[in-house]
Design brief:
228 residues, alpha/beta, globular
Length: 228
C-alpha cells in the first residue's frame, strides 16, 4: 500500500472542532481551512451543523456531526432523534458514541440494538454512520465485542475515540479493529493524530479515515499541538 503524502492525506481527514466553547468564528475558520485543503469532512457538534453545511456548500467537503457525545449515555431514541436533526440540518455523516457500559459488561444485544436503531435513522436520511467505541475505556474483549456489534448492526465505520476520555488512537487498536471488522468496513482513527507520521502509521495499520483537529499541521508536514 502506497503511503499517503502531504499532498494526498487530506482526503482521509475529518477536520474536527468539538470544544464546547467553540465560537461561530472558530467554526467558520475550521470550515474555511477544510475547503482550502480539501479535507474529507468537517466534524462539529450538532449546534453548528447548519453553519458548517452552509459554509461548505459547493466545496466538495462533507459535513459530519457527533451524536450521544461524548458519553454515549443517552437512550437510542434520543440518539436517533439527534441524528435525524443533524441530517436535516445538512450532515451527511454521523459519528455516534456507543453505550460504553454495555460494552464493558459484555452485553452484545444491547449494543446491537443501540447501534442498529441509530443506523436505521441515519441510513434512512441518506447519511453514513460511524460508531465510536471509546477504546481507552475498554479491554481487548470489549473492543472486539463493540466492533462485532457495529458490523452486525449495519454501521459503516468503527471509530476509536471521542478525544474526551483520555487516550486516543493507537496502531494496536486500529490493527485489532481492522482484523475484527474485516477488509471492507471503514475504520476511523481519532484522538491524538497530530502529524503526518501519526497519520501514515495509522493508515498502514488499517485506518481509512482520520479524525483530527490538527488537520492543517498534518497536511503541511508539521507537528500539531491540538488536544484532539
Amino acid at each position: 500500500m502506497t503511503q499517503p503524502t502531504p499532498a494526498t492525506i487530506a482526503s482521509y481527514i475529518d477536520h474536527t472542532l468539538l470544544k464546547p466553547d467553540a465560537s461561530r468564528e472558530d467554526i467558520l475558520a475550521v470550515a474555511a481551512a477544510a475547503a482550502k485543503y480539501h479535507f474529507k469532512s468537517v466534524c462539529v457538534n450538532p449546534l453548528w451543523v447548519g453553519t458548517v453545511a452552509e459554509a461548505l456548500q459547493g466545496s466538495g467537503v462533507l459535513t459530519c456531526s457527533v451524536i450521544g457525545f461524548p458519553f454515549g449515555a443517552t437512550t437510542t431514541a434520543v440518539k436517533s432523534f439527534e441524528a435525524a436533526g443533524a441530517i436535516a440540518d445538512g450532515a451527511s455523516e454521523i459519528d455516534m458514541v456507543i453505550d460504553i457500559a454495555a460494552a464493558r459488561r459484555g452485553d452484545r444485544d444491547a449494543l446491537v440494538a443501540d447501534i442498529g436503531g441509530v443506523a436505521g435513522t441515519v441510513h434512512e436520511g441518506g447519511a453514513i454512520l460511524k460508531v465510536i467505541i471509546e477504546t481507552s475505556l475498554l479491554d481487548q474483549d470489549a473492543k472486539v465485542l463493540a466492533c462485532e456489534a457495529a458490523v452486525e448492526a449495519g454501521a459503516d465505520f468503527v471509530k476509536t475515540s471521542t478525544g474526551f476520555a483520555g487516550g486516543g488512537a493507537t496502531v494496536e487498536d486500529i490493527e485489532l479493529m481492522r482484523r475484527t471488522v474485516g477488509p471492507e468496513m471503514g475504520v476511523k482513527a481519532s484522538g491524538g493524530v497530530r502529524s503526518l507520521a501519526d497519520a501514515q502509521s495509522l493508515i498502514a495499520a488499517g485506518a481509512t479515515r482520520l479524525g483530527a483537529s490538527s488537520g492543517v499541521a498534518i497536511v503541511e508536514g508539521e507537528q500539531g499541538t491540538a488536544g484532539y
